[in-house]
Amino acid sequence: MSVAKEESSWLLLMPQIPPKPSYFRVKVWRRLQTLGAIAIKNSVYVLPNTDDAREDFEWIRREIVKDGGEATLCEARLIEGLGDSEVQASFRAARDADYGEIASAARALASRLPRGNLSDERRLQLETDVGRLRRRLTEVGKIDFFDAPRREATEGLVSGLEGRLRPAGAKPKTKAGHERREELQGRVWVTRKGVHVDRIASAWLIRRFVDADARFKFVPAKGYNPEPQEVRFDMFEADFTHEGDRCTLEVLMARLGLDDPALVPIAEIVHDIDLKDSKFHRPETAGIDRLIAGIAMATDDDEVRLTQGAAVFDGLYEYYKRKRP
After folding, report:
1. Do residues 251 and 243 lie in contact, with contact meaning Cβ atoms separated by under 8 Å?
2. What is the edge-to-edge ordering of all strands in the sheet holding 70-76?
3. Domain ranges of the chain
4. Over the stretch 259-299, which tens digit does the pLDDT of each residue have?
5. Cα angle 62-66-68, degrees, rounded to a multiple of 5
6. Closest by Cα among 226, 278, 286, 275 to 251
7. Fewest beta carbons within 10 Å, which of 29, 100, 138, 309?
């Protein structure tokens, strides 16, 4: 994906489509959806100002004019009223809705997977269904311009299905077994900018149980090439990220061999907030969800979010450590 130009953040397409034929309006709307454009006003569609987006909007504009309509394409900077952050939030919400549909389909498919051996016919059908989900996930990822929060969880669900269908003896994509914690000390831990509950909890776990002096680096979600001695977590192709229906915190605990009973309820809370699947139904989840959301709303500084979030998880850990069964 091209990088948005700083001097003009957005491209706006303002189409005027004739009422007939009626199918033409639907055709244009579907094309705009495929591009990932969102409507910010009636008949005003926006994309980040990139070369790719400009070319896509130009094609649609020419198509509209060819069929008797009108369309204006312009560059824009938002100065008053609707702000850049609000538009970006709208893009994230739209893509989160797409990821949510894929995640629901993946969970439904997982619930139908038999535990025993599969017949060749059944395996072929399941592989076709999972392949369809993978293609849809790839399509949505291409128009996920601002790193929608549900991407990693959805990627983990689809990857988990692929792993369950992998023939016996095939090399898995995810790592197995326990990591040696001492080998992870003195490393730089890299994750996506805009940390939220799973990354905040994972960073807390790393500093509390792996390396008290761990350093964190926050990078764009796409296109980052790790440097030597860096460990990526909760991002695309990370060393530690979602696996199946487990969030990154759960994966870290499993791979690091952390079996402290006080961590289990914390992981369950983080899981339900992050994956939004209400798997564990802990009564504390709603309160912690709002508390972490408040921390994120109060500051864009990821280090501050980690520090304030760590205090929340320190308190939770002490509570569950002292609480009687």
Report:
1. yes
2. 38-41, 44-48, 10-16, 70-76
3. 10-76, 84-165, 181-322
4. 999 999 999 999 999 998 899 999 999 999 999 999 999 99
5. 120
6. 275
7. 138
